[in-house]
User: What shape does this take?
Amino acid sequence: MITIVDCGINNLRSVEKAFEHLGHATQVTRDPGVAARADKIVLPGVGAFGAAMKNLRDAELVEPLLDRIAAGAPFLGICLALQLLFDWSEELGLHAGLGALSGKVVRLPDATPQNPDLKIPHMGWSPLHFPRPTRLFAGLDDGAMVYFVHSYHVQPDDGEVVAASSTHGAEFVAAIERDNLMAVQFHPEKSSSVGLQILQNFARI
Amino acid sequence: MPATRSSAPRSTTMQAPTNWCFSTSRAAFYDHAGADELVFLDITASHERREMVAELAARVTEEAFIPFTVGGGLKTTVEMGAVLAAGADKIFINTAAHQTPELIAEGAARFGVQCIVVAIDAKRRGDNSWEVFLHGGRTPTGTDAVEWAARAEELGAGEILLTSMDGDGTQAGYDIALTRAVAGAVKIPVIASGGAGNVDHIYDALTQGRAEAALVASIVHYGTCTIRQIKEELRARGVEVRL
Assistant: This one.
């Protein structure tokens, strides 16, 4: 059973339907008790960092999520949830995150005279580069394309956690994997067959 | 309809009318065929129709795993929210945005700029001048299309879906000058629409026209070419696309 945690501002339906399409049972919850017993957790996230953290705190989900991560339960953060794992973000003021990984969240680089067509948010399909083999991206070729929608990106203190990178103006971290803890900046549930493969890899861990 | 987007890479957006409601397997078909996005256009907006639009979004979410946009006739943030909650990634507003520009700002504040697409139907009125038309091209506004696009961006639009009324349905090519003028006036992505008849037209929209994505409908619906053929040809000419 995959437990999809609802932090109150996202549309979870696409993620739920993608796992169902792959043949996996899911449950959606905001209940800290249910989250605390989950075997596998998916935390999708869209919206602003500060608002999402407030929702997690108000729903008393912070502690169960961190406990499950520490206990070794497979955890997949999607989009904003990748960012939430870090210490803090500069989105709309400074906001503390979950701190499961050290590092920060900063804005993507703005357009420059050399690159006047650079848009923020970075919205669209971009190729992934894999610096090392990981469980999450098993079976995918370097250059596999996935769908992104984001204006901020993570900067881990420990570069070893990086599982995939992509480029928008400059190279940025597209995914992390550290033992049971995985998170992606893009939307696997909107990334066609490549995205479904990633979700299947996670579901089978 | 499917679109081809190129944010660095360019995309093919596929446009479909919402009567796909009853044949959503087409959405899965175009996902597998390589469309980068789908746009569902509700041509006959009515109250009942809008409920069906939310139903459509829910069904597409079950079988297609690429981003999709739904719009046509949405008038309030409540209606926008219903479609997004059903699983759409973005909504577009056209007539309502022009009549009530605050709707763009309200939608952006509530759902995020990335969700709010402003659709503009433009008709050429001179060498380098295009006028915004509403109600599916029936009502002239006197508003300059390039100025309206810039204003929509200021209000919080995340994207512009730009249709040339002159090109729409002709398969004689997008209005490249229009596309280029709007793309140059805004920092947000522009999807070129209206007139795609062959790969040259799409190539022109994504290069000279500076569009981020090209929307195609008839040429793939009627089998003139496949999305894969379009993308292979674009890639062969140096346009970065997802294959």
Observations:
- Confidence is low (pLDDT under 50) at residues 17-23 of chain B.
- The CA atoms of residues 54 and 82 of chain B lie 6 Å apart.
- The first strand of chain B starts at residue 2 and ends at 6.
